[in-house]
Amino acid sequence: MHDQSHDPLHGITLEKVLIRLESHFGWDKLGQEVEIRCFTHDPSIKSSLKFLRRTPWARTKVEALYISMLESPWYKENKEPDDESS
User: Fold this and answer.
1) What is the pLDDT, as a whole number, of residue 37?
2) Among 5, 51, 58, 64, which one is least packed by beta carbons within 10 Å?
């Protein structure tokens, strides 16, 4: 059986990933980090989820940014208490 306990995305919904990224970066910086229209033109969690669920290459970029954020020393020192599961 494959152990997914080391996968930082295991058990985290795409919606939670987006909420955490938007909270950490803000829409403007998020749009610079991952250049997709749903982050740069009238962004919202709902529209971003719809796009990312239909666009695998964009979802891959967003998930990679999330993992990168989790691994950053700044994030590890400043994360919110409810982020302990990550």
Assistant:
1) 94
2) 5
